[in-house]
Amino acid sequence: MEENLSAFLTEKEKIISDELVQKVKSLSIPSRLKDSMLYSIKAGGKRLRPLLMIASCESFHGTYQQVLSVSLALEMVHTYSLIHDDLPAMDDDHYRRGQPTNHRVFDEATAILAGDALLTYSFEAITDDPQLTNEQKVYIIKRLAKASGPKGMVAGQSLDMAAENREITLTELEEIHDLKTGELLTFALEIGAYIGGASIKQIAEIRKYAYYVGLIFQVQDDILDVSGDPEKIGKPIGSDESNMKSTYPKLLGLDGAIKKKEEYVDLAEAALIKADVKTNILKDFVQYLSLRDA
Amino acid sequence: MEENLSAFLTEKEKIISDELVQKVKSLSIPSRLKDSMLYSIKAGGKRLRPLLMIASCESFHGTYQQVLSVSLALEMVHTYSLIHDDLPAMDDDHYRRGQPTNHRVFDEATAILAGDALLTYSFEAITDDPQLTNEQKVYIIKRLAKASGPKGMVAGQSLDMAAENREITLTELEEIHDLKTGELLTFALEIGAYIGGASIKQIAEIRKYAYYVGLIFQVQDDILDVSGDPEKIGKPIGSDESNMKSTYPKLLGLDGAIKKKEEYVDLAEAALIKADVKTNILKDFVQYLSLRDA
């Protein structure tokens, strides 16, 4: 990994995680509800969405402080989606990132409510940000609700569940991924650019970049599932296969999936050149996501 | 019921229901998700929250058209809360308003997603309202998120679940009701007054009125559960008792509960006089809620 990116990730990941925990801890709410929210917030992960938002903001004329609150709201929405997706009625996952899932540590009712709470509070948090104008708040809330609601992430999860146990085409697969994970990644990058002072034309290029970043992320996820190190990825090899999930390697073969990913890397980098960014950080991010081993 | 209120309820309930169905129908989203959202939206009910918002707006200098979109967003949030509350992991209800609950007609995963979708879309709908300024939108979203999230309705549901199967005091009971249903009723009345042009002092009185209206609603619910007509209330008499729920009649006796309700009616009416409203509609609403048989 590029040294600059590595330093950026280490520094900003700590800020994001500390602030997130602080924000949820400071809420005056029932203790069991708070414990359940905090459990999943603390479970961590890569904080990819807030990091992309900050990187995008800094790629224009912005500072991380300008988007920090919005990036935390975004991570809350992402965390809510993981809690609900893991529920027995949904993907019925017992572990996430090596730790028992929320509903197994607490109970299903509490997990459902913790998800509902994180989603709802994320919108309140955006309205409370003293650095944003009302115009910016309304635009950001509109985009976040669209990206995460029935036209975005919720649609993706709904289609994903309907697609289990049946063969789907590459086009269908990519539509599901775009809705389920791509929309929030696009939100992250677009809003970072918007607050960072990018022009409308630059934002349009960043949206293209975001689209390919989402696909690169997913292709690599599927590749790791068949050829990764189970210790590093935190789940056994071939779990998609046994879950009857459609994946890139299944549809294109492992070599075909790797080739597809390289095409997307080229397309993401081309969009970035057109966006005329002032640092290399988003370019390094593409390499990092494409070559990650976990 | 007062003739004016009766005409108001009939006319506005139809507008609200028609517009709500239209709004959800027009979404370009996966069909199963949309069907599930529409099922609960169509299941209807009294549309009490939108009606109170409109009544409050018209009690000052506003028209129903000014708050219609926000009132629909509010009803979506209320509908999401019913879908999630009915889930097997929560209250495990098989019927609502005489019809099978959402997760029994569809499935649990779809019901969870339909709830998530309605909640998220409600915020997008507010940002789309062309009649509101950005300042109004931000204020309304902030209040809605607070009233429905972990400091409001979600806290109430969380405390309510923790209170099952144990004795609680009247103070605890009222705190739970205030969070679980009172917060959204207060949002309805407060935002109606705000958009209707009420002064800060008038809004403060409307908030007091709203607090008592919420309690009156709840006391009457509990009274109907022990002395209502099962055909009209749509559930057997004594179901709270068999669910081990704390209620007003249980804590105060039936006569004590009726007396308590009358105290609250007086307090609601006193707040209304101080709010200096220009019509009788909110006063008639108190009588209607206090004396309803369903």
From TrEMBL, chains A, B:
It is an enzyme of class 2 (transferase). One of its GO terms (biological process) is terpenoid biosynthetic process. Gene3D superfamilies: Farnesyl Diphosphate Synthase (1.10.600.10). One of its GO terms (molecular function) is (2E,6E)-farnesyl diphosphate synthase activity. Its cofactor is Mg(2+). Its EC number is 2.5.1.10. InterPro entries: Isoprenoid_synthase_dom_sf, Polyprenyl_synt, Polyprenyl_synt_CS, Prenyl_diphosphate_synthase. GO terms for cellular component: cytoplasm. It catalyses: isopentenyl diphosphate + (2E)-geranyl diphosphate = (2E,6E)-farnesyl diphosphate + diphosphate. Keywords: Isoprene biosynthesis, Magnesium, Metal-binding, Transferase. PANTHER family: FARNESYL DIPHOSPHATE SYNTHASE (PTHR43281:SF1). Belongs to the FPP/GGPP synthase family. NCBIfam families: FPPsyn. This is Farnesyl diphosphate synthase. The lineage of its organism: Bacteria, Bacillati, Bacillota, Bacilli, Bacillales.
